[in-house]
Amino acid sequence: MTLDIYLVDLDDAAQTTAWLELLNAYASDPLGNGEALSPALLSALPARLRQRPGTWLFVASLDGRPCGLLNAFESFSTFSVAPILNVHDVFVRGDARGSGVVDALFERAEAAARAIGCCKMTLEVLAHNEPAKRVYTRLGFAHYVLDPALGGADFWERKLA
Predict the structure, then answer these.
(1) In three state form, how does the secondary structure of the chain look?
(2) What are the C-alpha distances in Å from 144 to residues 1, 51, 83, 161?
(3) pLDDT tens-digit map of 1-47
(4) What is the pTM of this model?
(5) CB 16 within 8 A of CB 23
(6) What whole-number distance in Å separates Cα of residue 49 and Cα of residue 10?
(7) Among 26, 40, 51, 118, which one is most buried in terms of CB atoms within 10 A?
(8) Cα-flanking dihedrals φ and ψ of residue 20, to 5°?
(9) 47 within 8 A of 55, measured Cβ to Cβ
(10) CA separation (Å) from 116 to 30, 54, 55, 58, 78?
(11) CATH architecture of the domain with residue range 3-150
(12) 37: burial class by Cβ within 10 Å (0-12, 13-18, 19+)?
């Protein structure tokens, strides 16, 4: 078994297609959105991401077959005066789970984060996704707490579109 992790070059058609197929598989999964992405969105996404500095798209390949992705975006910590790498999407195809793919993806993302001087990596996880929580805990992630008296932070959103 050969496991490779590569940073997606959005100007490489084969890499981009593999990444889009994995992203769409994730979106279709109940832990994604449970619904495939529209062809229009899939078509527009590479060009939009090329315009965003600090975009990190990693694909894992087992024996030459794309099987997982990790998408991350650079943010910034005003308190640490340093970049943050936010892991936005993580997905491993069912048939590749348990084969070290997620560990390899996070190793590669952490190496990238360290290379650009990040003070931390962040991610969001669904409240009832216990398998993911176990993996993230094993990898050293923990619920964000600035002051124990104030409790842990929650991830909130306000949709604009």
Answers:
(1) CCEEEEECCCCCHHHHHHHHHHHHHHHHCCCCCCCCCCHHHHHHHHHHHHCCCCEEEEEEEECCEEEEEEEEEEEEECCCCEEEEEEEEEEECHHHCCCCHHHHHHHHHHHHHHHCCCCEEEECCCCCCHHHHHHHHHCCCCCCCCCHHHCCCCCCCCCCC
(2) 36, 30, 17, 28
(3) 899 999 999 999 999 999 999 999 999 999 898 999 999 999 999 99
(4) 0.94
(5) no
(6) 8
(7) 118
(8) -65, -40
(9) no
(10) 33, 10, 12, 16, 16
(11) 3-Layer(aba) Sandwich (3.40)
(12) middle
pLDDT computed for residue 146 by the predictor: 86
Amino acid at residue number 72: A
Number of residues that make up the chain: 161
Where do the structural domains in the chain lie, given as residue ranges? 3-150
Per-residue pLDDT tens for 102-117?
A: 999 999 999 999 999 9
As a dihedral over the C-alpha atoms of residue 19, residue 20, residue 25, residue 30, rounded to 10 degrees, the angle is 110
